Amino acid sequence: MGCIGSSQARNEGGAKRKKIMKPKPWAHTEPITRAQLTNMREEFWDTSPHYGGQREIWEALRAAAEADLKLAQTIVDSAGVIVQNRDLTLCWDERGARYELPRYVLSEPTNLIREEGQ
């Protein structure tokens, strides 16, 4: 229920959630290898629950970050994630906890060093 202007009333009316999109191109401060990028990502995801919020939401955000856009949209919608920035760099859960994702977990930098054989 709620008054006509409340967010709950708008959500009951079938208001659309923000559609997510690919992050804008970005460059790391210096060229990095895929192995370095992977290490940065693993370190972030290993420590993310310590930034606050719910472990389940962090897990859903990781799954979304590693999925294609259509599946990522389904994941964030199913988890009840409120997307503030359409590239997933800033999200909230339904309890008001903030989740900030660095660009390096969402996409590759433009200055990624391609190692031979890749």
Automatic annotation (TrEMBL):
Coiled coil: none annotated. Residues 1-10 have a biased composition (Polar residues). It comes from Arabidopsis thaliana (Mouse-ear cress). Gene3D superfamilies: Ub domain-containing protein, DC-UbP/UBTD2, N-terminal domain. The lineage of its organism: Eukaryota, Viridiplantae, Streptophyta, Embryophyta, Tracheophyta. This is DC-UbP/UBTD2 N-terminal domain-containing protein. It comes from the Eukaryota. Residues 1-24 are annotated as: Disordered. PANTHER family: UBIQUITIN DOMAIN CONTAINING 1 PROTEIN-RELATED.
